[in-house]
Design goal:
The structure holds two protein chains of two kinds. By secondary structure, chain A is an all-alpha fold. Chain A is rod-shaped. Chain A has one helix and no strands. Chain A has one domain. In chain B, helix 2 runs antiparallel to helix 3, helix 9 runs antiparallel to helix 12 and helix 13 runs antiparallel to helix 14. By secondary structure, chain B is mainly alpha-helical. Chain B starts with 18 loop residues before the first helix and ends with a helix. The longest helix of chain B has 27 residues. The chains are: A mainly alpha, B mainly alpha. Chains A and B meet through helix 1 of A and helix 1, helix 3 and helix 5 of B.
């Protein structure tokens, strides 16, 4: 990325981006499980 | 604690936010209260609901409340930056861009309503949509900066969760959930005005017309007492109308009496310095415990004793 950051700032940016990406991954997996569960419950009914 | 933003401005489209900042946008403390109220109504409602459907309903209430909180913070970033209590929120602190917060809140609002409609039922989804709209638009955009009655009318937004929880189980809304709505609605003014009394300087600095700022401390203390004197009889109605049992009745009488005693202490207080506002701080804390106890008593009455 073409930004004038110190190595510490770049490392901090990367750490925060990683935390966001992990959270997004967890969210998407949970969403898939949620839709799967809703479908199963609807089928049982 | 969230680390400080690096001392270099992020270029457009680059975010310094952490996952915790997005969580903070959802106002997790408010969310936990809302979830508790909805869950109590869900447990209290007659009929059967599949446990997973109940989980989906509670999740949608939580996410919907969080979405409303995110939209609220997006709109109020300017005044949040002026108040000590809210200055470190992700938007005023510059960790999340306004358009990002709006998109996050709007997406969660739509998502929670759609999933509630698909997974639970249309009535619960409609009430959830109404509550998000009420909080994000009626209260945040319209009332908060316009009138000292902001939290009286806006209190309705926080009172919707029992209706949603009940509707998720029964598909309709009857007397008891409306009484639960009424209790939260009447509880909101004493709760928030006691906070506003000892946070008055913050609200005045931000130009928010809270009652203590506009009408003064004495008038606010009188209003706190008046709303408490209406709240307590209304809180006894579920028991008086035989919609609940003796556990709820006993808890409502005892906790309501303590509420009145504490509101009287506030009404008698003439302090103008925050450091001398012990009764106000005590009432604010007690009001949270009060609502927790009477809603828990409803559940005990309907679930455990039944």
């Amino acid at each position: 990325m073409n930004v004038d950051w110190t190595p510490e700032q770049t490392a901090e940016f990367n750490r925060r981006r990683r935390s966001r990406n992990i959270a997004l991954g967890v969210f998407l997996v949970c969403l898939a499980v949620l839709f799967f569960g809703i479908s199963i419950v609807k089928m049982i009914k | 604690m969230t680390p400080a933003t690096p001392a270099v401005a992020a270029p457009p489209g680059v975010s310094f936010a952490e996952w915790r900042d997005y969580l903070a946008l959802l106002k997790p403390r408010v969310m936990s209260l809302v979830v508790f109220w909805a869950a109590c109504a869900l447990w209290t409602a007659p009929g059967h609901i599949h446990p997973f459907t109940a989980f989906v309903a509670i999740l949608c209430v939580a996410v919907g409340a969080g979405a409303a909180g995110a939209l609220n913070q997006w709109y109020e970033a300017d005044i949040d930056g002026l108040m000590k209590r809210t200055a470190n929120r992700p938007l005023p602190a510059g960790r999340i861009a306004p358009q990002e917060a709006f998109a996050f809140g709007a997406a969660l609002a739509v998502g929670s309503v759609v999933i509630m409609g698909l997974g639970v039922n249309v009535l619960a989804a409609a009430i959830l949509a109404g509550s998000i709209f009420f909080y994000a638009v009626i209260y945040t955009v319209w009332l908060k900066r316009a009138t000292p009655q902001n939290i009286v009318i806006g209190g309705a937004a926080g009172a919707f969760p029992p209706l949603i929880g009940w509707a998720a189980v029964t598909g309709d809304v009857s007397t008891l959930p409306w009484l639960m709505f009424g209790i939260i609605f009447l509880w909101t003014p004493p709760h928030f005005w006691s906070l506003a009394l000892f946070m008055e300087a913050d609200y005045a600095k931000a130009g928010v017309p809270m009652l203590p700022v506009v009408a003064g401390e004495a008038a606010t203390r009188r209003q706190i007492l008046l709303y408490t004197l209406v709240l307590v009889p209304v809180s006894l109605l579920p028991w008086a109308l035989a919609l609940t049992g003796w556990v709820y009745g006993a808890v409502a009488i005892v906790t309501g009496t303590i509420f009145v005693i504490r509101a009287l202490a506030v009404a008698r207080n003439t302090a103008t310095l925050t450091s001398a506002m012990g009764p106000e701080k005590a009432l604010f804390k007690y009001s949270l415990l009060y609502l927790f106890l009477i809603f828990a008593a409803l559940v005990v009455d309907h679930v455990v004793l039944a």
